[in-house]
């Protein structure tokens, strides 16, 4: 059974949990208290010297970076290649959406929201950049039912983890009508969606909302 070092509130960790549910692999979940510094302890650094979560240990494989873990789980344990297609033309779209999530959408979310954890007021310009990224995702969904095709892929697992967190902190999504419809489809199509994603999103959403309130700043002015 693979070990997953994780924190439920973390969107990247939740994307891995969704992929594991989808392929039906049971994970030995090991919570890491990042706020308490557990990721910097010698025993964890022996596993992952970059001290990041999620981290997967499966036999002699030690793997971090959530999107790499998702692709590994889908390839190693998937009953078919639907979550991460073998066909290069189909796979490149999945890879493009994974990179969009990592380098644009989730990155812009953290740029906007995470400074409040350090007691810093968010930059309104970063909110506009985040909304721009949401607009791009909304446009991607013009072509397909899901993020990279007409079936759920690991791109959806990663993107829904990010978008559900964005929604959980109080950013209104109603204007992104395709995203709203896609989220409803994901909730129905993804096994174990609530357990793997909703509870953690609510956890970080509540935490960040409180930080915004302490700074007397509206999340979505």
Descriptive labels:
single chain, 221 residues, alpha+beta, 2 domains, 4-stranded mixed beta sheet, 8 helices, 4 strands
Quick recap:
With 221 residues, this protein is α+β, with helices and mostly antiparallel strands. It contains 8 helices and 4 strands; from the N terminus they run βαβαββαααααα. A 4-stranded mixed sheet has the order 2-1-3-4, with helices on one face.
What is the rounded Rg? 17 Å
Q: What fraction strand?
A: 5-15%
- The total of beta strands comes to 4
What would the average pLDDT be, to the nearest integer? Answer: 96
User: How would you characterize the largest beta sheet?
Assistant: 4 strands, mixed
Low-confidence parts? none
What is the spatial order of strands in the main beta sheet? 2-1-3-4
N-to-C span: 46 Å
Helix and strand sequence: EHEHEEHHHHHH
> Overall 3D geometry?
globular
Total of domains: 2
Number of helices: 8
Q: What class, by secondary structure content?
A: alpha+beta
Fraction of residues in helix? 55-70%
């Amino acid at each position: 059974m693979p070990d997953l070092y994780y924190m439920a509130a973390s969107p990247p960790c939740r994307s891995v949990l969704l992929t594991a549910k989808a392929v039906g692999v049971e994970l030995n979940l090991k919570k890491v208290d990042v706020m308490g510094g557990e990721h910097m302890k010698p025993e964890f650094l022996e596993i992952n010297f970059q001290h990041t979560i999620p981290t997967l240990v499966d036999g002699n494989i030690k793997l971090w970076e959530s999107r790499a873990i998702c692709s590994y789980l889908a390839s190693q344990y998937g009953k078919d290649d639907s979550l991460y297609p073998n066909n290069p033309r189909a796979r490149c779209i999945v890879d493009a959406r994974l990179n969009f999530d990592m380098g644009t959408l989730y990155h812009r979310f953290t740029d906007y929201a995470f400074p409040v954890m350090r007691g810093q007021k968010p930059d309104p310009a970063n909110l506009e950049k985040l909304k721009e990224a949401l607009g791009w995702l909304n446009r991607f969904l013009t072509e397909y039912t899901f993020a990279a095709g007409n079936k759920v892929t690991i791109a959806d697992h990663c993107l829904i983890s990010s978008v559900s967190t964005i929604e959980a902190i109080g950013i209104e999504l109603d204007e992104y009508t395709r995203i709203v419809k896609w989220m409803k489809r994901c909730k129905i199509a993804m096994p174990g969606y609530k357990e793997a994603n909703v509870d953690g999103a609510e956890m970080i959403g509540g935490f960040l909302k409180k930080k915004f309130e302490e700074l007397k700043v509206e999340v979505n002015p």
